[in-house]
Amino acid sequence: MTTLNEPRSPTRIPFPTVDEIARHCHQSAEPETVHIEVHLPGPINAERLRSAFGEALTHHPRILMREAPGPWYRRRYEWELTTTPDMDVVTFPPPTQDALKQARTRSLTNTPPLTASPPIRLEAIDLPHGTALVLTVNHTALDGPACLRVLATAAELYGGHANTPTAPPTRPPDTPEPPTETPSVWTPPARVAPGTPDPAPGGNGLLLTELPVPDRPKGSPYTVNDQLMVTTALMIAHWNREHGAHPRPMRITMPVDDRPRGTDMPIGNGTRLVEVTFAPGELTSDPAAMGELLHRTATRTRALKSLHRPQLGHGATLLTSPVVPVAWRAALTRGLRRAAAPWTSTTLLSNIGRVPYTLDFGGAAGRAHAVWFSAPARMPRGLTVTTASTAGRLHVALRWSRALLGPGDGAHLRDLFEHYLHTTEEHRA
Rounded CA gap, 59 and 77, in Å? Predict the structure, then answer.
């Protein structure tokens, strides 16, 4: 029986399926971090930011968590919720010439530990013209949209400007269409052909770029997301042809997030993953065929988004059932992941879409004019594409495994992405 003088035991929450699978498959050589980078036009006050971000964490208490210790024979990992952070997660590196580059490198190579609450890190970097906020997230615990919601709350507390999320863009009404044929899911998909691996050991490389949001005729049956999907597929198909890879079906993983964006947004890993497949013969940049390719892609993505299924599929749900010690399930999960590597999708395209918050810090700091996200790019995929739009611009992050590609490869892929994004604009529905 607990007395009034005894400290209350922290609340514990079993790891959801996504968190447990990620925890099983952790690799120190290729950390599973989400990188978020927000650029503001002016300087930011260090103490006000530290205070606002700390208060924002208490507005979203689900982010204040750490992995609870337990014996090897426990049947579940558990999150232990805390009332306050275990450490100060906001830091201000010295304003050197390479401060932003170094912060990005840390975001891709140094994972915030699960043993300290919260498993995130925020660095504020002074720039010649403004401030960059670099948020690093341990993807075992949280995803990008959830942490952006927390940052939006911090901006509101810092600047006093409401960050009420804008309504999502409307898409044309669905019309019943028969599903288009796609290659069998039992066919191993194409891999991104190796380029010139980076001599730097382990981790990921990153390239950020800014492009115009692609034009789309009013009333088109496809969305900007469909244009980005086609662009990504054509970019990799072109890259693989240049590197002599045998044509194979392309399979692109696409996160789908149905959560509300208000202050009641569930915090954690809340997206479900679907896979969009392309046959080799579909991936042509012929302007005459582009309209049909965009239309087929729209039909596929619409059908996949409408499916109701567990976040990682029924197999992952079964694999995380707490019927045996979690350490045994971890060994089984890692073995199955290695065995299933040839069937892993070609790449991941995560389109955040239009950032729904103004991220206005007010005063001298101002309103965000660029927001980038990047998703982990561990092998066997080795490449991810993440996009978001802010202030009428498309912010694209290419992230790759250094074991597969190097900086020059990333620059070439960027050029291919820009080229094929433009070809999707040339078509008129």
Answer: 25
Q: How far apart are CA 405 and CA 408, in angstroms?
A: 8
Tell me how far the alpha carbon of residue 212 is from its chain's centroid: 21
DSSP secondary structure string for all residues of 120-144? EEEEEEEETTEEEEEEEEETTT--H
pLDDT at 172: 55
Place of tokens 């805390």: 82
Judge whether 230 and 424 are in contact, CB under 8 Å: yes
Please determine, for residue 147, whether its predicted confidence score (pLDDT) is greater than 80.
yes
- Mean pLDDT within 49-54: 97
- Answer whether residue 101 shows pLDDT above 50: yes
- Residue 94, Cβ neighbours under 10 Å: how many? 8
The structure's pTM equals 0.93
User: 186-206: string of b/e by CB count within 10 Å (b at 16+)?
Assistant: eeebbbbbebebbeeeebbbb
**Strand, helix or coil at 159?**
helix
CB-based contacts of 429: which residues, under 8 Å, 6+ apart? 217, 219, 220, 221, 222, 291, 294, 295
Q: Are 230 and 250 in contact (CB under 8 A)?
A: no
| pLDDT surpassing 70 at residue 349 | yes
Cα radius of gyration (the chain): 22
Burial environment of residue 403 by CB neighbours within 10 A (0 to 12, 13 to 18, 19 or more):
middle
Domain boundaries along the sequence of the chain: 12-426
- Among the residue ranges 53-62, 125-134, 141-150, 216-225, the one predicted with the least confidence is 216-225
Mean pLDDT value across residues 283-292 = 85
Position 173 scores a pLDDT of 54
- Report the distance separating Cα 316 and Cα 336, nearest Å: 11
Query: Which residue's entry shows tokens 């863009």?
Result: 169
Mean pLDDT of 7-29: 84
CATH fold, domain 12-426, is Chloramphenicol Acetyltransferase (3.30.559)
The enclosing H or E element of 37 equals strand 33-40
- Three-class SS state of 103: helix
Q: Where does the pLDDT of residue 286 fall: very low under 50, low under 70, confident under 90, or very high at 90 and above?
A: confident
